[in-house]
Known about the structure:
This protein has about 350 residues and is α/β, with parallel strands linked by helices. It has helices at about 20-30, 35-40, 55-65, 90-100, 115-130, 200-205, 225-250, 265-275, 295-305, and strands spanning about 5-15, 20, 45, 75-80, 105-110, 135-145, 165-175, 175-185, 195, 220, 260, 315-320, 325-335. The strands form four sheets. A five-stranded mixed beta sheet has the order 1-7-6-4-5, with helices on both faces. The chain has a four-stranded mixed beta sheet with strand order 8-13-12-11. Strands 2-3 form a two-stranded antiparallel ribbon.
Amino acid sequence: MKNVNIGIESIGIYVPETVQDYRYIGKESGIPEDVILNKFGIRARHKAMADESVSDMAIKASVEALGDIDPKSIDLVVYCGSEYKDYYLFNLAAKVQDSIGAVNANAFEIHSLCSAGVYSLKVVKGMMRDDDNLNTVLLVTSSKETDLVNLNNERSRFMFNFGDGAAAVILRKGLSRNIILETHMITDGGFAEDVACYNVGSEAFNNEQGYNCDDIMLDVKDQKSMKERLDPVSLKNFYSVIDNSLKKSGYSKSQVNYIAPIFMKKSMLDEILKEYGLTEENSFILEDYGHCQSADAFISIVEGIKKGRLKDGDVAVLLGAGTGYTWAATTILWGELE
Length: 338
């Protein structure tokens, strides 16, 4: 493998203007407002309008990331967002490529639910190092999964924090700043069928009852069982992917300066920060965004820079997790490389 740096040149984010706060979620779900605010850890989430598609948000985030960069310089567009897209069996990466004028780019997609953004950095980095023709890549993620969450379904309550939004990242070969280092992932396939839209897909088509197009919501087969199995392993798996990502990158746990997390309840994030000798000033809580699928860590990076929490020379760890179940972390050396 060629020893060349792959760095993040820019990040663009987009969230819809419409906001649904904790009072709205509480009213619609019947859950007390203080539980939504304090236990669920969400003050507000963004909601896309009916005529605002997943690709619309992806394109807006991509344009933001491009800035003054000529889209004709993009060699590859990679979509790593929600599988709930404008259409069933639809290439959203190709739509972005065409819409932003990246006429010289190829396009394809990576799907790993909410850990895809973090892990895709590793995939794209490897591709760029191995291919002389890949110098600039646009990685984009988008989600409108609020459409799929029924606030009256008690089983899906852990998804009530879902918010709509998108993020896009420009990766550049040979860039001497914001260097993508190493990644670690853990997969526990025992959770593979715990969460799904059970009435869409080949299983539904082959079912005697046929395809129920009136019920395509995300659901949980057995909430109690999933919680009993997930709670004992989730925190330790977060620690494991962070530790291994840092170790592979040549750093110890005492050297991490910033954690860019997936949306999680505050109590869990506090535990993770404490484990690494950090405080809220070394992270960004997504309580005013909601869980925007695999865009979360990139939103945290942008907000961390705005608030002066992420600085040049910092060792940052991007953290993701997705139903299935996967946990992933990627270490980045932020700022100019000395």
